[in-house]
From TrEMBL:
This protein's name: Uncharacterized protein
Organism: Natronomonas moolapensis (strain DSM 18674 / CECT 7526 / JCM 14361 / 8.8.11)
């Protein structure tokens, strides 16, 4: 699952982002956040105490789900998506399906492949 779509990415959201924290006993807690940075911090702070954490955008779409992606990979993807808005970065399709692998910042497996092929 892609953490963010470039067209939905902004630095702040005035409380329109929600982090939904779900536990096995069907309890849920919604935390309103004013930015993706704040939402990521809420997920990181609660990643060991909840079963599932989701970041829900203003339009109700789930833009992050801890079942599908580690929050550290999600944060890396968010930073890269934010940077892509201001700089044109070459598209890169990781052969190892790493969501945090980009043409200008390869994953460990791609770096090893590159070194072996030289």
């Amino acid at each position: 699952m892609c953490m963010l779509n470039d067209n939905k990415l902004t630095e702040s959201y005035d409380g329109s982002l929600t982090v939904r924290l779900l536990n096995n006993d069907e309890e849920k807690e919604d935390v309103r956040c004013s930015s993706y940075k704040e939402a990521i911090e809420v997920v990181m702070d609660n990643r060991y105490s909840t079963t599932v954490a989701k970041i829900i955008g203003k339009d109700g779409d789930v833009v992050f789900n801890s079942v599908d992606m580690d929050i550290n990979d999600g944060e890396t993807e968010w930073k890269h998506a934010k940077r892509r808005l201001s700089v044109k970065i070459e598209e890169y399709d990781c052969p190892h399906n790493s969501v945090a692998c980009f043409a200008d910042d390869l994953c460990v497996q791609c770096r090893m492949d590159k070194i072996q092929n030289q």
